[in-house]
Write a structure and sequence with these properties.
Shape of chain A: flat
Distance between the termini of chain A: 8 Å
Strand content of chain A: under 5%
CATH class of one domain in chain A: Mainly Alpha
Structural class of chain B: alpha/beta
Number of helices of chain A: 15
Strand order of the largest sheet of chain B: 8-9-10-3-11-12
Structural class of chain A: mainly alpha
Distance between the termini of chain B: 42 Å
Oligomer: heterodimer
CATH superfamily of one domain in chain A: MetI-like
Order of helices and strands of chain A: HHHHHHHEEHHHHHHHH
Radius of gyration of chain A: 30 Å
Strand content of chain B: 25-35%
Number of strands of chain B: 12
Helix content of chain A: 55-70%
Number of strands of chain A: 2
Order of helices and strands of chain B: EEEHEEEEHEHHHEHEHEEHH
Largest interface: A-B, 26 and 34 residues
Number of helices of chain B: 9
């Protein structure tokens, strides 16, 4: 019997139908050849025919019906995308790499990167605080996450944008005492900084929860063994706990990052010229609303796709030591292909099995 | 002439988990080069006692001394009687632990590191040159019968092999004392032998060891001293020939009758 490949869709048909064949000691071998027991096996007339029969998978008409339905729907979508002239694809093409759109795209990109980097680092710190033995730090971290998660990001963004109305001036100095430097808040908190701060504060809270969950997924014995080896606390966290928490952290963080990439579009409400707002500025002048929204949409799709691919490779990196066979796993394409449902595949595999 | 100071001295050790008293006044000496086996029913406090020796558990009263040094605390004499035991800073405890090797029931190898990385992690953290640490690791792997397995990940090995790597990892710090916490309890029966044989070889080199185990045969053969715990107290201790053959305490007799 061949063992099933590591990846690929489950094939219950093969397992079920293979049972009678697997139960006998080899289809071609003489029955009972290797038996120590002296009692003879009870034979029936049809045994011989059963052993030489070809395995046929169960019919699955539902698959063909659902495939047909999906195919039709997909054809309709493709048809309307091509034939509906109001999409104005030539306009989309025209504006796709337009200067203003590109500048907006760059802002979206660096805003996402900066917010993610700062937010995640803050989140790691918050998670470490939450899990520390110091009750002050624990409470502080808990309070932060509670407060930030309770406020919608759009509200936070507006809050930071309007912070000047609460504190017209910000100063650096001794608490309740001398001030060394003072700056006008409105001057400091421009749209871009307000957007950065608001999104970072939000991302930190969510990262903290992701990291905390990841750390808790690492067995207690790992840090105990590290303690017994005389490793310091910082080293245990960096070298032992965090790397093993990563398999749990990476997928959730990838999700967060993709969410953040798109969430940056809310900065358009405080007039920060990101990808979406740049598109809006253009269509407010020429009223080509749909084509310009398509430009922004296509860019978001492209970026999300790139991030997903990156996530795949990071996940694979942190799967080290998880697989029994380090060589297996295959490339991105092999994995993708193995997961594509292919009709008739079941029967081919069965043929190979028999 | 007085006796040399035992390597490990435990006096008046108490530990509570909530309202439950796990250790209730343990006094124990372990002499240099000797193997002490802790026996007793589950919940009798064997593992907790072992974990107090390298301060993985903080005792509530009493003290542990290894090589004449208090573990986890610093004594300060004050006027009047008594004085104070100040808890040591984490860094100091860390340094004390580096000289005490420990092997766990569940192996606790670092799953994301290769065998080699597992073994050199402790020495490198302690400031040993990487090259030196690798040389030591290679030598130790050979000693536990796993030469050439440097690049394997723990998940690719059997339980017995993993536990032998864990022993090599603990030895890499050149400890003066080895603690074994039920090293064979998580193993399939046919893998117990290979681990016990490594521990036996280690005992033959004169390593001081405290071993929690249920392997009575191993205790009889290797132990210099067997300590029987029940309800957080030592109810019987002495050479294996006596404690294992004709225990005087009724609890010890009942336990041995059940496991043999």
């Amino acid at each position: 019997m061949t063992s099933p490949p590591l990846s690929g869709p489950p094939r219950p048909v093969a397992a079920d139908a293979g049972q009678p064949a697997a139960g006998t000691p080899g289809a071609s071998g003489a029955p009972g050849a290797g038996r120590v027991d002296e009692r003879s096996l009870v034979e029936r007339d049809e045994d011989h025919r059963l052993l030489s029969a070809r395995l046929v998978g169960a019919r699955r008409p539902g698959r063909w019906v659902s495939a047909a339905v999906v195919l039709v729907l997909f054809a309709m979508l493709a048809h309307t995308l091509v034939t509906n002239e109001r999409f104005q694809w030539h306009v989309v093409g025209e504006y796709f790499v337009n200067g203003s759109i590109t500048r907006g795209l760059l802002l979206t990109l660096w805003m996402t990167a900066a917010v993610m980097a700062c937010g995640f680092l803050l989140g790691v710190g918050l998670a470490a605080m939450r899990l520390s033995s110091n009750p002050v730090l624990r409470t502080l971290s808990f309070g932060y996450v509670w407060l930030v998660r309770s406020v919608p990001p759009l509200v936070q963004l507006l809050f930071w944008y309007e912070i000047a109305s609460l504190y017209p001036q910000l100063s650096l100095g001794v608490p309740f005492g001398h001030e060394f430097a003072t700056v006008s808040t409105a001057h400091l908190f421009t749209g871009v900084l307000a957007a950065f701060v608001g999104l970072t504060v939000d991302t930190a809270a969510f990262s903290a929860e992701i990291v905390r969950g990841g750390i808790l997924s690492v067995e207690r014995g790992q840090s105990e063994a590290a303690e017994a080896l005389g490793l310091g606390r910082g080293r245990i966290f960096r070298r032992i706990v965090l790397p093993q928490a990563m398999p749990a952290i990476v997928p959730a963080t990838g999700n967060l990052l993709i969410g953040l990439l798109k969430a940056t579009s809310i900065v358009s409400v405080i007039a920060v010229q990101d990808l979406l707002y740049s598109a809006q500025l253009i269509y407010q002048q020429n009223f080509l609303i749909m084509p310009l929204l398509m430009v922004a949409t296509l860019w978001y799709i492209i970026l999300t796709t790139l991030l997903s691919i990156g996530q795949y490779f990071i996940e694979r990196h942190y799967a080290r030591g998880k697989r029994r066979d380090p060589g297996a796993g295959g490339g991105l394409w092999q994995i993708t292909r193995a997961n594509l449902p292919v009709f008739g595949r079941t029967r081919n595999d069965l043929a190979g099995l028999a | 002439m007085s006796e040399p100071l035992p390597l490990v001295r435990i006096r008046g050790l108490r530990k509570n988990f909530g309202l439950h008293r796990v250790l209730d006044g343990i006094d124990l000496d372990v002499r240099e080069g000797e193997v002490t086996v802790l026996l007793g029913p589950s919940g009798s406090g064997k593992s907790t006692l072992l974990r107090c020796v390298n301060h993985l558990e903080k005792p509530d009263a009493g003290f542990v001394e290894v090589a004449g040094e208090l573990i986890g605390y610093r004594y300060e004499r004050t006027r009047g009687h008594g004085g104070r035991l100040h808890e040591l800073r984490h860094q100091r405890v860390t340094r004390q632990r580096a000289r005490i090797g420990m092997v766990f029931q569940q192996f606790n190898l670092f799953g994301h590191m290769t065998v080699l990385e597992n073994i050199i992690e402790g020495p490198v953290a302690a400031g040993v040159q990487r090259k030196q640490a690798v040389a030591t690791a290679t030598e130790l792997l050979d000693r536990v019968g796993l030469a050439g397995r440097e690049g394997s990940y723990p998940r690719q090995m059997s339980g017995g092999q993993q536990q032998r790597v864990a022993i090599a990892r603990a030895l890499a710090l050149r400890p003066r004392l080895m603690l074994f916490d039920e090293p064979t309890s998580a193993l399939d029966p046919e893998l117990v032998g290979e681990v016990l044989s490594v521990i036996r070889d280690l005992a033959a080199t004169g390593m001081t060891m405290i071993v929690v185990t249920h392997e009575i045969g191993f205790a009889r053969e290797v132990a210099d001293s067997v300590v029987f715990l029940d309800g957080g107290r030592i109810v019987e201790s002495g050479p294996p020939a006596r404690v294992l053959t004709s225990p005087s305490h009724q609890r010890a007799r009942a336990f041995l009758a059940a496991v043999l």
